Amino acid sequence: MDPMDLLTNAIQPYAWGSHSAIAALQGRVPADQPEAELWMGAHPLAPSRVHRGGWATLVDTIAADPQAELGPAVVATFGPRLPFLLKVLAAAKPLSLQVHPTPEQARTGFDAEDARGIPRDAPNRNYRDPYSKPELIVALTPFTGLCGFRAAAELAALLDELAIPSLKEFGDALTNTPDESAVRALLAGLLRWPQADRAALVAEVARRCALLRTSESPFAASFDWAARVADDYPDDTGVAVVLMLNLVQLAPGEAVFLKPRTLHAYLQGTGVEIMAGSDNVLRGGLTPKHIDVDELLGLLDFGNGPLPATPTTDLSTDERAWLTPTPEFRLSEIVLSVDHPVTLAGGVPQILLCTQGAAHLDDGTSALDLAGGQSVFVPASSSVVRASSPSGATVFRAVPGL
Fold first, then answer.
1. For the segment 36-74, what is each residue's pLDDT rounded down to a tens digit?
2. C-alpha to C-alpha distance for 243 and 258, rounded to whole angstroms
């Protein structure tokens, strides 16, 4: 039986990241550069590292013995790869507007771009692998995001309040034909807005939003966010797209599941995120990166209404899991009480992340102590893990969702 492994994890220094959130989780002083994401897993771009008689990436460790590390069911379903990536995401500024494909869309798009000879690392590549990328974010702090399109009638009311002449025809269409086709037409119009006129449109949207952000309008919080985003993206019509999406505000412990084809952007806050192991991201604004408008419009689900908070189910008196339909992952939270050990079944690959307090883990052949911000990989060959804490702890547990 292979031992548990304490993970050494990469931190991604994306410009939108916080200088202090991940550092505080790990008990460090704030960083000089932004720290946006702490990656835990076997993603080829930044795999975690383990030490088994010498340092190795988790990718190489799994490749050396997939059956022992992942278990027969995972290998049979996903091949010799860990099907999920666990992260701590710390957003101090908004991320780009983005969407991820379904499995069928990912395979079709990947094969088509391969056939056209587009290099897989090309900046204009839409599909970097043939996999889908559903994701779940669980708030550790108050967390704000944009998730899915508003209903057409609601969007018509918002545009009426915004009262920008150049957008009036879209507002009229939404009023006269309040359906998904009108929402799609508005998005297409914004993404295809003439380049020479974009700065003027964004300036007018920002000006009106700044006036309305303190009003009694039900859209005041969205107006506020659009005005704030415009400061960083003064010529990006994604600022107006912000107003098309549902504003979602999560309290700590609440979560939202982003199924494929859902346009979204995280705005601010720290959370534990889990996703299928894929690099497929198509962008719709708030970014200098490539935007393929035609491909994006063909990918999106224009169904409307706010996304509900993801429900949970109790796996035991100490562990609750967020209910998602994806086979690639399941995320749960374990609350360890003082001197009350919890037994976790093995047989599947697991990553355990401590977010509060300190935890002690024992799988019968090895034992590890986890402090805040530390994580461990438990191979499928481990039959059971016993977790305890001398002072109380919170541990997130990522496993395949099979």
1. 999 999 999 999 999 887 899 999 999 999 999 999 999
2. 19
User: 269-286, pLDDT tens digit by residue?
Assistant: 999 999 999 889 999 999
In sequence order, which residues have a C-beta less than 8 Å from that of residue 322 and are 6 or more positions away?
A: 136, 138, 255, 257, 310, 311, 312, 330, 331, 332
Query: Which residues, 6 or more positions from 142, have their beta carbon under 8 angstroms from its beta carbon?
Result: 249, 250, 251, 252, 269
Three-class secondary structure assignment of 6-63: ECECCEECCCCEECCHHHHHCCCCCCCCCECEEEEECCCCCCCEEECCCEEEHHHHHH
CA distance to 19, 55, 232, 298, 340, per residue, from 32 (Å): 7, 27, 21, 41, 39
CA 197 to chain centre: 32
Tell me which residue of 315, 302, 282 sits closest to 401, measured CA to CA. Answer: 315
User: Any idea which residues carry the catalytic annotation?
Assistant: 283
Contact 69, 380 (CB under 8 A): yes
Contacts of 130 (CB under 8 A, 6+ apart): 106, 107, 110, 111
Burial of 320 (0-12, 13-18, 19+ CB in 10 A): middle
What are the phi and psi torsion angles at 362 (to 5°)?
Answer: -145, 120
Q: Provide φ and ψ at 67, rounded to 5°.
A: -65, -40
